[in-house]
Design goal:
2 copies of one chain form a homodimer. By secondary structure, chain A is α+β, with helices and mostly antiparallel strands. Chain A has a single domain, classed as HIT-like (HIT family, subunit A), CATH 3.30.428.10. Helices cover 34% and strands 21% of the residues of chain A. Chain A has helices spanning 7-10, 13-16, 58-79, 126-144, and strands at 19-25, 28-33, 42-46, 83-88, 97-103. The first copy, chain A, has a 5-stranded antiparallel β-sheet, with helices on one face. In chain A, β1 and β2 form a beta hairpin. In chain A, α3 (58-79) packs across α4 (126-144). In chain A, 41% of the residues are buried. Chain A binds chain B through residues 51-54, 56, 58, 61-62, 65-66, 68-70, 72-73, 76, 82-92, 94, 103, 110-116, 143, and chain B through 51-54, 56, 58, 61-62, 65-66, 68-70, 72-73, 76, 82-92, 94, 103, 110-116, 143.
């Protein structure tokens, strides 16, 4: 049963059915989206429960966007994406999070907004998820210089 | 004829057919989207030609996201939106810009990703656009404390 009513805060089964933790970052957690229609699609969630970017202090906003930028670069490098799409929707699941969606020329929804369906369209085996996570972790280290 | 091949840089008719300038901000320009399916929908474009958030320096990223945050708050306040959606796509028009899309409970695409059609779905009279721009400018002043 949900403790807070927010699965990003509870980190319960509702969350793990949708995504797999890749790494904690200074002000966020980066997850691999189980729907891998777009190779390397991730979600990055702010570490505490806020709804809008303008609810963050300047220090929080700077730190969060640094995490978002680093994660996007790592994803781009890991999969040689042609463009990263970044989106905060959250009308219903309002805990502040960006969808980070790598796009590929000739691939799904190139040149259009990516589909944001609650139903996974392309699920993968655990070993394949693991491989993608390892690829992102490797690039995260390089981008962060650690 | 396009000078740079980017209408955000050229600020030509291709741009003015899609949007109307509201205000220059320290590192960006805020525009009212002519498609007002979502009351108060705007676009905020970085002042120079970059493609990805991670191409910005830390100083540029901080400044741009401060503009984005301020603009989103002004839009939310002007129209009492229930949630702001923020999205960078740009597979084809890659000059860094966020769609800032106010969402309303019971309104278009509440609880879903907003439709990002290149075809305007709800165009308004100039006087109505002007009224929305004035509403945003008024709130921008308050949010920026000027």
């Amino acid at each position: 049963m949900s403790k807070t009513g927010c699965f990003y805060c509870d980190k319960d089964e509702q969350l793990t059915n949708l995504m797999i933790e890749i790494s904690k970052l200074p002000s966020s957690i980066l997850y691999l989206n189980r729907d891998q229609t777009h190779k390397g699609r991730c979600i990055i969630a702010f570490h505490s429960h806020k709804r809008e970017l303008f609810e963050l202090s300047e220090v929080e906003l700077t730190a969060f966007m640094k995490d978002v930028s680093i994660a996007a670069e790592a994803i781009q490098r890991a999969f040689k994406a042609d463009k990263i799409n970044y989106a905060i929707y959250g009308d219903l699941v309002s805990h502040l999070h960006f969808h980070l969606v790598p796009k590929y020329e000739g691939g799904p929804e190139w040149g259009e907004a990516f589909v944001n369906s609650p139903i996974s369209r392309l699920l993968m085996k655990d070993s394949d998820n693991r491989e993608r996570i390892e690829g992102i972790l490797e690039q995260l280290k390089i981008v962060r210089g650690i």
